[in-house]
Amino acid sequence: MVVAFNYLGSTILVVTLSSTSYSPTRIPVFAEREQGLAPALAGLTQPGPAAAVGAVVDLAIYGGPAAGKTNLLYLWLRTLRARGPELDGAEAEEQRALVTAALGGPPDPSAPPLRHAVVHLPAAALLAEIGPAARVACYGRAGLWRGVVAGLAASLALLVAMALVRGRLDAVTLAASLAVLCAACISATVAARARWLDLGEIEIALWDTAPPGGEPAALYPVFEALVRERRRRGAPWRAHAFAPVLVVDPLSLGDEPELHRFGRLRGALPVFAALGGKRPRALVAVSRWSAVEAVCREGSERDAALELETSGAGAPPRVRVSREVLRRICLDAEDGREGGLALHHLRYDAGVLCEEENRDSGGLVLRWAERAGDLEGDARQSAFRFVASLIDPVAP
């Protein structure tokens, strides 16, 4: 049990470790008497108050059958080097099974419909992966803009005061005002970066889901309970974020995807994302990006439908795709806002395209090999940027 309350600005935390607590740095998310509310989450732990973890992020990976959800989780594990906390019991066994499969071992044939892996990522490593523009956005959420505005106000005040005293606006006055502004910007940047680095480790829980029939309805009560208990029992100084990740296989979209399973999965994104709080965000992960590029080459007829012969990396042997659908849903989709939802996109390949051949009939032959590496290039940066966009450092 974890109880936290404030008294005159001071936080008092009382922690009682039940018999399901496996180590001093891990505590159960659900109390023993409450584990029946969400049996799929029984035994789940989170960082205890003593753990050097400043943020916890839950990424719920879902999609249609054979969309590549587990493959994306494997890519994440390899990209993050499967660096996780010390777990115990069933949670540790589940972690070992997923990491083993991610490294090329046999998958667990008795895997439950909901399982997860936990990895740790240093805040400094996250900032190093996302690029300058995204780092500035992160610093902005940690107080950078407040410091810049304060510096601008001080700079203008000094400019006016010196101009009145000196009776003119000269180079010395401008230089002094500019120096104050630059010093304020540098100071605000250093302070914002320090706020991020104070997070220490970021814990990322990657959830692999396989609900009955691939429908998302059964997942909502599970993740609603997860988010509620994470925030109720988590340390008050530790940030928490939740976001859904919809995996889209372009080979399975068909001619009218909005009227079938994809439409239902896509429609669930805002509902799942709302569990994340005031800044709901979601990620659409397009697997088999090389197929989209092969079908939607520049200059190709937009309204045409193509017959594809595919093999490798779980691809169906033969499939018919609509170039217009792939362009609209996969190629032309951009990051942005839909209503109150911030939508991000990740384009990656579930396998390595090793053969591409054009048929005389106009069809395509695509063959993939299993991918043994991790996320690379733009896909890697997009993934890390999405994680960074979810985190708001908690003010000390």
Low-pLDDT residue spans: 1-22
What proportion of the residues is helical, as a percent range? 25-40%
**Helical run tally:** 11
Order of helices and strands: EEEEEHHEHHHHEHEHEHEEHEEEEH
User: How many structural domains in the coordinates?
Assistant: 2
Question: What is the average per-residue confidence, as pLDDT, rounded to a whole number?
Answer: 86
Structure summary, number of beta strands: 15
Question: Into which percentage range does the β-strand content fall?
Answer: 25-35%
Helical/strand content category: alpha/beta
Neighbour order of strands in the largest sheet: 6-7-5-8-9-13-12
> Shape from CA axes?
globular
Features:
single chain, 396 residues, alpha/beta, four-stranded mixed beta sheet
In short:
With 396 residues, the protein is α/β, with parallel strands linked by helices.
Model description:
With 396 residues, this protein is of the alpha/beta class. It folds into two domains: 2-130 and 197-390, no CATH class; 132-196, no CATH class. Helices cover 38% and strands 25% of the residues. It has helices at residues 69-79, 89-102, 123-129, 132-141, 144-166, 171-197, 220-233, 261-273, 289-295, 323-331, 377-390; strands spanning 2-7, 10-15, 26-28, 45-47, 53-63, 114-122, 201-209, 239-248, 281-286, 305-311, 318-322, 336-338, 341-347, 351-358, 364-370. Strands 6-7-5-8-9-13-12 form a seven-stranded mixed β-sheet, with helices on both faces. Strands 11-10-15-14 form a four-stranded mixed β-sheet. It is globular, with a radius of gyration of 25 Å. The two termini are 23 Å apart.
